[in-house]
Structures are given as structure tokens and as C-alpha cells.
Write a structure and sequence with these properties.
Layout: H1 9-15, H2 27-50, H3 58-74, E1 98-100, E2 110-111, H4 114-127, E3 138-144, E4 147-154, E5 157-163, E6 169-171, H5 174-178, H6 196-205, E7 210-219, H7 221-233, H8 242-250, H9 255-260, E8 263-273, H10 281-290, E9 300-302, H11 305-318, E10 326-333, H12 336-342, E11 352-356, E12 361-373, E13 379-390, E14 393-399, H13 403-409, E15 412-413, E16 416-422, E17 426-432, E18 442-443, H14 474-485, H15 497-505, H16 520-524, H17 531-543, H18 549-555, H19 563-573, H20 576-581, H21 584-588, H22 595-605, H23 608-620, E19 642-646, H24 654-663, E20 667-669, E21 676-681, H25 687-695, E22 699-700, H26 702-711
Parallel strand pairs: 2-11, 19-20, 19-21, 21-22
Antiparallel strand pairs: 1-6, 3-9, 3-10, 4-5, 4-7, 7-8, 10-11, 12-13, 12-16, 13-14, 15-18, 16-17
Helix pairs in contact: 2-3, 14-15, 18-19
Bound molecules: 2-(butylsulfanyl)adenosine.
The site of 2-(butylsulfanyl)adenosine has 15 residues, from strand 3, strand 8 and strand 11.
Length: 717
């Protein structure tokens, strides 16, 4: 035996009681052999994929694997969920199951400069009531370019893996994650918990219970190159960057495809957990490392802001030499008590921020300036560029926004321009290299007619934008429907631009509301649409009927009505009916709505199109009135908080109470953790209340809960 108890195949041969010379009779010894093989294979996986330090050859590894596979094939009753043979990927799924996160998966706020990071720190100190310039200890990590996932371990066994989704609900991609060998199928060691509370939980449950590990699944630059070469040979579209490739590979319904792409994962955060507790984030990282997870080696403690800046300076230089992508660093307050006190806003923790590296800038040529027509009819000039790679993405066009912007930068067709990806994503022309001009560049002029339907364009006074006024312009309709279905509007998945173009092209729909009346057979008329995908779409459409009123208002795509204005309108008018009756003055009386917005909103709500749309909205059964909505509601005690109910309430059913919490911006959950905001304890509440008490989570009785609801304006009949 070698150190770590890992044997080579040759040594195994001598000790083996699984070879043909010694026939096995007792199932017991087969099971023992299987367990030894599993342990060895997973340890070799760990050495190879996590530590990058293999000690046996591929052939020796294969031999161990084949032996295990054979024993399991002969004794299928001994196959377990965490056997390495179960990594290869089972049968393709028809769709991904939705997973409700026990603790929301937040995103991160960004800072882009030393000054902005200083601001971030000041905010922390103010929030904690600490004197300015008190030192804060941070952990600096790289900001990996991939896809955030959540791994759930129950009693140490990997049982479920999910995507982040919208942070509240993700998709179950367990099968696909199992194919990633850097992910342990079993947590290899449980270190004793650090503090008394944890020790109590630990000993009372007798096992580590449930723990969620979060991190980033990514693809290396080399693997992307290999994959793209393979795709190019098969004339398949190439992935633009490692992030898209990782996301595309993880969201495969067929786990065998995921298995064929070499994905990897760095773990960096704790989700819901029981039975373990840590004092600092850095100790948690070490715990993960010792428990078999892959933690990036470059994570480092910083005693103060200056050391954070040193880390950023160092990695800004070195990041390009890494085999994987990173577009900045992530800075996290190290002390977990302070993290708790700081908490989170509705979308991001206050105790962490991304500190981005500056975007790469490249020069290229404007081939032509084209014009696209948006859902509100707005004409947008677009620079069609000689394709150029920026931050690993091929950029071939950039919006120029409007005529004013073109004049300000003096961009002409044929110019050499400097391009970067704003916020690391959207391509943007930032300057013209005028000394490169040859004299044959052409000045751009906004067209007089819509480039799609040829209707004369309008240029409202005082506005920078030009519009196609034709409400039936096909491009406008398609964009409108696309906007309607988008995640932040009605969130109808699987209905993308291509399908919309076909549906509009075949005259099956003329506006987004028509989607609600489409029949299965009509979808089946579309090329390459199978029963299953049509059913998925129909389910999505049906599900969207539950979307709240302010999102529906936003989805209508009225000019100047973004998410915020939609929320203001929903809160003020409370119903579609009231909005359609309102006059200009009433719109203008709403704080946050100026005359221009008021005019645009009134114009739309009085139009014939709006009347037709309203009629369809009602027929389709969408929500046309405002019941306090999470995103639109003023902050309540539940905003952004996880609320756990235990025991029975007298005035409400559990489901009603959970719905109200959701409406008030909270997240109902079923299990108590350090991240729980409140526990609402009704009659006969038991263990959850006990646990909440132990870890110091505020507990509300029914009366206190109802009082908060009353204060938030919720009436219970
Ligand atoms: S921590 C509550 N650490 O960045 C905070 N995130 O822009 C949880 N990311 O959704 C995230 N590297 O996908 C954290 N070292 C790192 C990260 C990291 C990349 C991603 C993650 C997150 C996104 C936010």
C-alpha cells in the first residue's frame, strides 16, 4: 500500500480477492471489495482532478474502474448513488426539474476602481457602526468565469446539484454535475465543528446532516479550443467563450454530452447547512479543501484594503496566464459574524463585492452602419464591425445608440474604432482613431423610412430617437413578443427569437397575448417542433399566468415603461382597469413619473392596440390587479429574508402564509439555518423552533407575524 491508502493496480493484483483465481462466494466480501474499489477510484479522481497530482497511470486507473464496473454489473443490487460508475451519465432527461433554493443564491455587486472599493468599505463600516478606517480582514479570491451551481450533500453524500437560475429557483442538473470528477460524490472527512452551537447540533443529529456547497463550474481555455476544433470539423456553431461553453455543456439534457466535455469546478461559498459551523470564510475554504472539494489555490487573506489592492494589482497582471478565465477578483469579509450582521440586499450580499479588471480594448474597422428596429419602434444605429476577439469573445457589431452618439464620436462608415465590452459584456465603441482616416469614410444619416416596413419614420420633438410609427411592423412585433417572454417580464422559457419569427411569419400570432390562445397543433406546424418541446412551451405559457401585475405591465413593452415605472404604476393604480381610465394629470402626479413618461403611458393605454390587448389579457386569465408585489413593495421586515414556518397557524393556511411572505419580498423555506431571517412558530411547533433558538434566529408567534402583515398593508379576511 502506498501512502494515503491508495494502491497501484499492480499491488492490488497481489492482494486482490476479486480476480478469477479466487472465486468469490460471499456477497459480503464482494461488497467489501466494491467499497474498497470505490474509495480508491475516488481518491485517484481527487488526486488527478483536484490536486493535479496523479500517482497511477491511466491504464491502472481503467483497470480498477473496469473491475468495479464488472462487480456492479454482476451484483446490481450493490450499486449506490455515490459509486464512481454512476458518474458516466445515465439516460437523457426530457427536461430539467426546477429546484427551489433553500437559501437564495445571490449575485455580487461590482466595483471597478480603488476609489469604488474604498466606498464599498466605507459602506460596510457605516453599516456596522465602526469608526472610519477600522481595519477589516478580507478574503480575496479570483472571480471565475463560469456558471454558479449549488451542490447538496445529505449525510455526506452528493444528492442534488442545481444551477443558480434566478437565484431563488434553479434547475436540477445532478446527473450532469456528477460527470465532473472534481466534484466529490461523498465528503471525505468531517472535521469537528468549531463552536458550541454547532457541536450541539452535530451531536444531536448524530451526523453532519445537510450541507450545500456553492461554486463555479468552468471550462479551461484549452478544453474550449479542443471542443471548438471538434465542432468546427462537424460544421457546428462555435462557442464564443469558456463561460458559454461551460453553460452550454451543463445544460445538456443528455449527461453523456456533458461527460464528453471536460468541465471543472472551484468551490467558494456555503449555502444552507446544518451540523457544521465556521468562524471565518478562510477557515471554511480550508475545511472544504480538506474535505475533498476543489478550492482555488490563489485565494488569500488580506488584513486590510491595501492588501486587497495588492492582490488586485498582482492578478490584473497575471490573470492572462491562467488556464481558465477570470474577469476580476471577489473580496469577502472574512469574519462570518460580521457577514451575518451585514446581511444582503435583495440581490447581493453587503459583505462581498466583485472588483473587476479593466475591460480589454481593441481596434477594428466599421464595415457599415446599419439600423435595427426595436419593440417600441425605436431605430437604433448599429456599427457592423470587422470581427474581433475581445476577452475571448468574437465581437462583430456594437450599438451606437442614437444619432447624437454618432455625432459626438464622429463615427463614419469605414472608420477604425476602439471597441471594448462594457461591464465585460456589451460591445461598445469608445473612440474613433481619426489619424487612421483615409478620406473615403462616409458620414451616417438616419433613414427617412423604416428599413423594414418602409413607413416614414418620426422624430418626436425634443427626443434624440427616431421611431417607426407602424405598430404592425414585423420587426417591432417580433421584438415586442420577445420582450414579453423575457425572464424579467413574463419569464416564458423556450420561446426565443427564432420561434417568434416563425410564429409571426406564419401569421399564427400578431401580438404576445396571442401566445395564450395557441393550440398544440398550431405549434406543431412549426418546423422541427416535437410533441415534447411543444408541451414544454405550453407549460411555460400556462405558468406565466401566475406572474404578478407589475411584471405584466413591464411585459407590455410600452415606451419608457421599464421595470421601475411598471412597479410605480402597479402600486399607484392597483389594476389595469384603473390605469386605462387615468388621465395625464394622474400619471404625472406619481412620484418618479415625469411628463414624457406620463404622455407615453397615457398614449398607449388609450390606444386601440391597448384595448385589444386588455381584452385578450382578461380572456387569457392573467393577473390584472396589484396585490403587494415583492419587487414593487416598499421594504418590509421580510424583504430579502428567508422565513420558515413551523407548527400550524390559526388565521391562515401554511400556503397562504407563504404566499404573503413571497408578496412581501421574503423567501419561504422549510429548513432553519444561520441564514434564516425569521421562524414563524404556530401551534405545536417543534424541532425547528428549538433549532432557531439555538442559533439565535428571531422567532415570531402568530400574533407578531400578523402584526407585521398588518403594518405592511396586508388584510386578512
Ligand atoms: S461568491 C453570495 N466567489 O460571480 C456571493 N462568486 O457576479 C456568492 N463568481 O453568481 C458568490 N467567482 O457565479 C463568489 N470566487 C467567487 C466567484 C464568484 C465567480 C460568480 C458567481 C456569482 C457571480 C456574481
Amino acid at each position: 500500500m502506498l501512502e494515503n491508502g491508495i494502491a497501484t493496480a499492480a499491488q492490488e493484483e497481489e492482494e486482490s480477492f476479486g480476480n478469477a483465481k479466487k472465486p468469490l462466494t460471499a456477497l459480503f466480501s464482494i461488497q467489501q471489495r466494491i467499497e474498497i474499489l470505490r474509495k480508491q477510484i475516488e481518491e485517484h479522481n481527487h488526486r488527478y482532478y483536484v490536486l493535479d497530482n496523479p500517482i497511477i497511470s491511466d491504464a491502472e486507473y481503467d483497470q480498477l474502474f473496469r473491475e468495479l464496473k464488472k462487480l456492479e454489473d454482476e451484483n446490481p443490487e450493490l450499486i449506490t448513488f455515490d459509486s464512481p460508475t454512476q458518474r458516466v451519465g445515465g439516460a437523457p432527461l426530457e427536461s430539467f426539474k426546477k429546484v427551489y433554493h433553500r437559501v437564495p443564491m445571490h449575485s455580487l455587486d461590482n466595483v471597478f476602481s480603488e476609489e469604488e472599493f474604498e466606498e464599498f468599505e466605507k459602506k460596510i463600516l457605516r453599516f456596522l457602526n465602526l469608526p472610519p478606517d477600522s481595519p477589516i480582514e478580507y478574503v480575496c479570491e479570483l472571480k471565475f468565469d463560469g456558471l454558479a451551481v449549488n451542490l447538496t450533500y445529505i449525510d455526506g453524500i452528493f444528492t442534488q446539484g442545481a444551477t443558480r437560475g434566478d437565484g431563488i429557483e434553479g434547475e436540477d442538473i445532478t446527473q450532469n454535475l456528477k460527470t465532473i470528477k472534481a466534484i466529490p460524490l461523498r465528503i471525505s472527512s468531517f472535521l469537528p465543528p468549531e463552536n458550541e452551537t454547532a457541536a450541539e447540533i452535530w451531536s444531536s443529529s448524530g451526523s453532519p446532516g445537510l450541507i450545500e456547497i456553492r461554486g463555479e463550474v468552468f471550462m479551461t481555455k484549452d478544453e474550449l479550443k479542443r471542443l471548438n476544433e471538434e465542432r468546427s470539423q462537424k460544421s457546428e456553431p462555435l462557442f464564443a467563450n469558456t463561460r458559454n461553453a461551460a453553460a452550454g455543456s451543463l445544460r445538456q439534457l443528455d449527461p453523456k454530452i456533458t461527460a464528453s466535455r471536460k468541465l471543472d469546478m472551484f468551490c467558494y461559498a456555503l449555502g444552507y447547512h446544518e451540523g457544521v459551523a465556521f468562524r471565518t470564510h478562510f477557515k471554511f475554504l480550508n475545511w472544504m479543501r480538506e474535505s475533498g472539494f476543489k478550492v482555488n489555490l490563489y485565494s488569500r487573506l488580506a488584513q486590510n484594503r491595501k492588501q486587497v489592492q495588492e492582490y488586485w494589482d498582482e492578478w490584473m497582471e497575471k490573470v492572462k496566464s491562467l488556464p481558465y478565465g477570470a474577469d476580476g477578483i471577489v473580496v469577502k469579509v472574512n469574519d462570518l459574524k460580521l457577514q451575518d450582521q451585514l446581511g444582503a440586499t435583495s440581490h447581493a450580499p453587503r459583505w462581498a463585492t466583485a472588483y473587476k479588471f479593466p475591460a480589454e480594448m481593441r481596434s477594428t474597422r466599421v464595415k457599415v452602419i446599419s439600423v435595427s428596429v426595436g419593440r417600441t419602434g425605436k431605430l437604433t444605429p448599429v456599427a457592423e464591425l470587422e470581427p474581433i476577439g475581445i476577452d475571448g469573445v468574437v465581437v462583430s457589431s456594437a450599438s451606437l445608440h442614437n444619432q447624437d452618439q454618432i455625432e459626438r464620436l464622429d463615427i463614419r462608415t469605414g472608420d477604425q474604432v476602439l471597441v471594448r465590452r462594457a461591464g465585460g459584456v456589451i460591445p461598445e465603441v469608445i473612440a474613433v482613431l481619426k489619424d487612421k482616416r483615409k478620406g473615403n469614410e462616409l458620414i451616417f444619416q438616419m433613414p427617412d423610412i423604416c428599413p423594414l416596413c418602409e413607413t416614414p419614420v418620426i422624430h418626436p420633438e425634443g427626443e434624440v430617437d427616431f421611431y417607426c410609427p407602424n405598430e404592425s411592423c414585423q420587426s417591432r412585433i417580433e421584438r415586442w413578443i420577445w420582450h414579453f417572454c423575457s425572464r424579467e417580464a413574463m419569464n416564458i422559457e423556450h420561446v426565443g427569437p427564432k420561434l417568434i419569427q416563425q410564429l409571426v411569419g406564419k401569421n399564427l400570432i400578431q401580438d404576445p397575448l396571442d401566445l395564450y390562445f395557441l393550440k398544440k397543433e398550431q405549434f406543431l406546424e412549426i418546423e422541427r417542433m416535437g410533441e415534447k418541446s411543444v408541451q414544454n412551451i405550453l407549460d411555460e405559457i400556462e405558468k406565466s399566468k401566475q406572474i404578478g401585475f407589475s411584471k405584466l405591465l413591464y411585459a407590455m413593452g410600452v415606451r419608457h415603461v421599464g421595470k421601475r415605472v411598471a412597479e410605480l404604476l402597479a402600486q399607484h393604480f392597483k389594476s389595469l382597469e384603473m390605469i386605462s381610465k387615468a388621465d395625464l394629470e394622474e400619471f404625472q402626479s406619481i412620484e418618479g413619473i415625469g411628463p414624457e413618461i406620463a404622455e407615453s403611458v397615457r398614449h398607449f393605454f388609450r390606444s386601440k392596440t391597448a384595448a385589444e390587448i386588455f381584452e385578450k389579457i382578461k380572456r387569457a386569465g392573467l393577473k390584472t390587479s396589484f396585490h403587494k408585489e415583492a419587487s414593487g413593495a416598499p421594504d418590509t421586515q421580510f424583504t430579502g429574508k428567508t422565513v420558515v414556518f413551523t407548527g400550524g397557524l390559526e388565521s391562515l393556511t401554511r400556503t397562504q402564509a407563504e404566499e404573503i411572505v413571497k408578496d412581501l419580498g421574503g423567501v419561504p423555506s422549510t429548513s432553519v439555518s444561520r441564514q434564516t431571517g425569521f421562524v414563524v412558530a404556530g401551534k405545536d411547533s417543534g424541532i425547528k423552533q428549538e433549532k432557531a433558538k439555538k442559533i439565535g434566529i428571531p422567532i415570531l408567534n402568530e400574533e407578531e407575524f400578523l402584526k407585521i402583515l398588518k403594518e405592511a398593508g396586508v388584510r386578512i379576511s
